[in-house]
Every structure is written in C-alpha cells, then in structure tokens.
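Input record, target 12 of the design panel.
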C-alpha cells in the first residue's frame, strides 16, 4: 500500500502540468479499459495524465472486495486521477479519503449518458443539478489538505450551451480545480463535437479546461486547441485504437504492441481485456482474413503464438502491482 506514495518529486502533478505544458495530453476514464496495464502503456508514449475507469463511490466505500477489484495502482502510475460516480457529497468525499494517498486528484463523472447511471443519480443527469454538484465539490475539497490535490468534474453539454457555461462558472466558484468538457449532449453519440461550446466555456473560466471528443491524432489535438484555447485534450477511442497517438504515431507501431503484451502479462491482465486491446490496436494493420482469425483466438498462448510467428516478437516481464487495502 505504501509503495503507491513517495514518487512526488519525480513527476508533475496535474496543476503543474497545466501550468507548464502548452497542451496536456490525457487518457480518458474508460470502463474496462483504462486500468493499470493500459495506463502504464500509454505513459510510455507521451500521455501526460491518466484517469482510472469510473468507480461507483458508495460500493467502493462499503466493500473491501470492490476496492481490490476497482482500484489497482503502483508507484510508477503517476500522475493519476481517480474518477468516481456519486450522487451524494459524503460518498464522493469518503471515497476520496481512501484513495488520496495513492493518486493526485479525483474526478466526478457528470457525463455518462447510460440510462442505468442516470437512473442511479450518476453521470449526465448531474449537469441539471448545479447546487448538488457544487456542494459535492465543496465537501470533497474539504476532505483533503493538499492544495495540489485536484477535485475536478467531467461534463457533457446541455442542449442550450449557455446553461453549460453557467454550470461551469458555478463549479469553478465551488472550487473545481479543472473541468473536462465532452463536446456533445447526453443524447448525442457519433455527432461531431461542438467546439464552439467548448470555446465559450474556456473563455469564461480561470481554471484549466480540457476538451474531450473526436481526438484521434495529435493533428486533431492541436486543431481543437487552436479553435477552443483549451489547456488539455482527453482521448478515449483514439487511445484504444492507437495507444502511441500522443507520441505522434498515426497508427499503432509494432513496438507498442510488444509493450502492451509485456505490461499486460506482468500485471496479470485478464485474457478478455488483454485480447480486446490488441483487437483495437491491430485493427488497421491486419488484413480482413487475418483479423477474422485473430479476433476469435481464445487463449493467451494462442495470441502469443500468433504474434511470435507473424511478427517475431519476444516478450519479457518485471512489473510489480499494489492493491488498495
């Protein structure tokens, strides 16, 4: 447990990144995918800041088993922000107290559009409850004493973007450290992100603003920053398809595939997750026939045999993992 602490002088914390970097590159909180192994991989390829997958705060508080399964880290896994789903300030603040020694900030999910989440009072429904979210920010901010520890939120847009601007102002006043804006409403999926709305939000806030959505390359990142003036960009699907994206690669390089296999094996990643990441990463490099064969492989040994025979890759392991007690 203690190994998660102590490397503070070896990396920049989130607010330092926003202060010193022209554009902060961020890996989004992705359910099932942005776990320790994948975070370790993308950090090798230019990702400045990583989020954990969304964690349900009340379950995390009540269950040791949930803490073991939902939050795994190590001393090299920094800077790190833990994202929570919460509908009560005391739940988010209590969960923050547990993870604070092992991370650099916490984030409240105010953007998940899935029906189950909103039915529980989580996710995108919270952008319609500004007083509640402001109180949750204040309670959580008061839980930690470190002024560099960030308390942030990730939001989607209201149908009337002016409401989102007003919401963001309220959250800044409540003490939010920074805000990530997914540039779509809760009803939009594949629509282009609204960069005008993100630019309007950025123009009225003093705290850093991060743009999320439609970031699939560094060209996209720089274009979005130029239009909106944001301090950082966050990618999800773009990172799955190309974990080396922030290092300037347009497709996943073979070395990145090798690194993923090594890291996944070293961290004991479950086969389904291990394989699914490779399916995303190799999608554009395989022929249709190869893709059909690779995608139905059913074991780690089968995947390793395929990669070894096709690409002559050699693998190694030496990674140590800590669980939150």
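The sequence produced for target 12 reads:
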């Amino acid at each position: 447990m203690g190994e998660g602490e102590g490397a503070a002088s070896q990396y920049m914390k989130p607010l330092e990144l926003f202060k010193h970097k022209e554009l902060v590159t961020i890996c989004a909180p992705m359910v099932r995918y942005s776990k320790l192994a994948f975070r370790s991989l993308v950090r090798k390829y230019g990702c400045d800041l990583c989020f954990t997958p969304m964690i349900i705060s009340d379950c995390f508080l009540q269950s040791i088993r949930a803490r073991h399964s939902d939050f795994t880290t190590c001393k090299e896994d920094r800077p790190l922000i833990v994202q929570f789903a919460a509908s009560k300030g005391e739940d988010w603040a209590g969960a923050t107290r547990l993870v604070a020694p092992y991370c650099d900030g916490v984030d409240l999910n105010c953007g998940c559009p899935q029906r189950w989440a909103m039915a529980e009072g989580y996710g995108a429904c919270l952008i319609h409850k500004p007083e509640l979210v402001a109180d949750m920010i204040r309670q959580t901010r008061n839980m930690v004493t470190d002024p560099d520890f960030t308390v942030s939120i990730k939001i989607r847009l209201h149908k009337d973007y002016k409401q989102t601007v007003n919401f963001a102002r309220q959250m800044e006043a409540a003490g939010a450290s920074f805000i990530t804006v997914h540039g779509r409403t809760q009803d939009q999926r594949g629509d282009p992100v609204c960069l005008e709305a993100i630019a309007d939000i950025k123009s009225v806030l003093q705290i850093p603003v991060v743009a999320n959505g439609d970031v699939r390359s560094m060209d996209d990142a720089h274009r979005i920053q130029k239009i909106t003036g944001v301090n950082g960009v966050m990618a999800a699907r773009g990172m799955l398809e190309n974990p080396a994206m922030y290092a300037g690669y347009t497709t996943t390089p073979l070395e990145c595939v090798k690194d993923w296999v090594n890291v996944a094996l070293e961290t004991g990643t479950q086969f389904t997750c291990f394989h699914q990441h490779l399916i995303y990463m190799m999608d554009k490099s395989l022929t249709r026939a190869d893709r059909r064969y690779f995608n139905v492989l059913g074991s780690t040994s089968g995947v390793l045999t395929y990669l070894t025979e096709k690409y002559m890759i050699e693998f190694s392991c030496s990674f140590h993992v800590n669980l939150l007690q």
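The CA atoms of residues 254 and 311 lie 8 Å apart.
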